[in-house]
Amino acid sequence: MNILFIEDDAIETMKFKRILAKLKVQHKITEAKNGEEALEVLGSADQLPDIILLDLNMPRMSGIEFLKVLKADEHYKYLPTIMLTTSQNRADLLECYRIGIAGYILKPLKYEDYEDKLTKVVQYWEVSELVKA
Amino acid sequence: MDNNKEVILLKRALERQKQARIQAEKILEEKSKELYDMTRHLKAANSKLESLLNKKQTDLSDSFMEIIDPYVILDLDYNVITMNDSAINFLGYDHRKEPINVGKMVHYDYVEYTLQAFESLKKVGVLKNYRAKIVVRDKSHKFIQINGSVIYDTEGRPIGLHGIIRDISQETEIKNLLAEQRRELNIIVDNSPLGIALTVDGKIIKVNPRFSELLGYTENELIHSTPNEITTCYDEEKCSDFVGELNSEGQDNVSMTKEYVRKDGATFIAKTNISAVRDEEGKIKFQVVVIEDITKEQELQEQKEQLLSDLEASNKNLQEYAHIVSHDLKSPLRSISALASWIKEDYHDKLDEAGQEQLSLMQEKVASMDKLIQGILEYSTANSSQLLSSEVDLNEVIALIKETIYIPDHVSVKVPKTLPTIICDRTKMQQLFQNIIGNAVVHIEREVGLVQVLFKEHKDLFQFTIEDNGVGIPKEYHEKIFKIFQSIGNKERSTGIGLSIVKKIVDRYEGDVWVDSEVGVGTQFHFTLKKSLLTEQSKSQA
Q1: Does pTM top 0.90 for this prediction?
Q2: How much is the ipTM here?
Q3: Inter-chain touch A114–B338, beta carbons under 8 Å
Q4: Considering only CB atoms, which chain B residues are within 8 Å of A85?
Q5: Domain of residue A49, residue span
Q6: What is the CATH number of the domain that holds A100?
Q7: Could you give the CA distance from residue B170 to residue B168 in angstroms, rounded to a whole number?
Q8: A133 within domain boundaries
């Protein structure tokens, strides 16, 4: 799969890469540090990603703002987007589902728990039919 | 000789007789003159009386004497010549038995006025609407009204006065009473804190001082102005409706809030009540307009609304802030936790036991800090303005809690009697029970621990009790435990926030929370929720 991982925290990126490295299936990760950078990546890429993992709380353009831009776009709106967050704010969760997301993952404290959750997410999308332009 | 003497005597006697006759003649002459004069005098008097009698008979027919109202004839010195029975009854004096002078009956307050009135009567010939107080024989005071005129003789000379008396004592009393009532009413109207105006055909005819004061015009300036000149339509629709409403039958009372324009151009808002006063035929005679300046109240209301919306905004901000802060604190903890895990995993071979142990301690501290942050977040959102109410089966809530929290093996949580289903915020209800039960289950040192959730229904309240057979709480802490960061447990995991969240949620449902506990025996946590806040009405959209 081609995964766009949008996250400003370097250690979070390390965590995700470490999880992917342990998986049997190889995936291509494209990183973006914030929403604006992610839009640049999307605009310049030859091929759109299969799924997007998006941190809710980011500087400059917040996850929700980016999500809105994404879902308003004629082409990007088909991309399954999964939110990653520490926020248990129900208002955020409702707003995300309203705009349109494919998942809302709470980051647990322990790395092992996180690894468990993210592995499941990736495996789920491995077996899912993808949009594939 | 004798003859001579005799002659002389006779002569003398004759002379004496002569003298006497002359004298007698003289007396007779005088007497007859007197008699003549007297006759003439009598004749004059007679004719005077005759003409008086004539006058009486022509001008003052007997019917006057028989009228019901008291009727009196006086001479020019106000002595009664005659009067009818009604007058005798009324005054208590009888002219046939004693001379009467009416001047003596006049009450001293009215003497001067009376003198003037009667002088004028003599001059002009008639007296109309003379009103005075008199004192009659039995000393009682009477208000009378007299219409009278002068009596003239045939030659046009005044010879007497006559008049009809009317007793107006009762009338005067009623008049005085009315005047008194009117004075009292005026006092009320003049001192009313409400502005009052009377209008006829849409024009002001009278206002009270408060009305003038409110509008800054004098009463004279306001009279004949129309309400439209001093008001603007605060509520356009109502304004135009109201004239129609008043004119149609039935609706005689209209209330509205209007804006008024003072003389100086300033405006104020007043509650206005207009009542129609109708005559016997049902036509509107007057309209009474009562206005109450509510500018201050209006301002206060607006201020209140502003404060409320400010408070709401600030509450919302605070909540967002809490979420952001908690995220910013949680994220680095996740990173630290991940890094510690990796060191443990990646450098397993190179770390000795002490190193492994220290990493585990670090993980634990990170975990307790994460818990603390979560607690603070929950506490700060426990009284967020939005309660997401829905139907909640509390039995399900307890079951969910039993799955969620850590319960030591020797402890069991039981619900002996089925709990009710209530309309409430599911998350908050779970927080409420979970914080108490979570506390209870970890503070039991007995071999068999038991935590029970009990329920009682009162008239206005639901009361819940969570009872345990744990270590108990010393009396001196019974109040303190509900304050934030006041942890009395020596367990590492207590943050001192749980029970303060409980207190906050119970407060939101206008209930109470308290504790009964004995050290070594157990603890009962009681809390109540107000039923009126657990109804469909309080249910809001999620």
Answers
A1: no
A2: 0.82
A3: yes
A4: 327
A5: 2-125
A6: 3.40.50.2300
A7: 6
A8: no
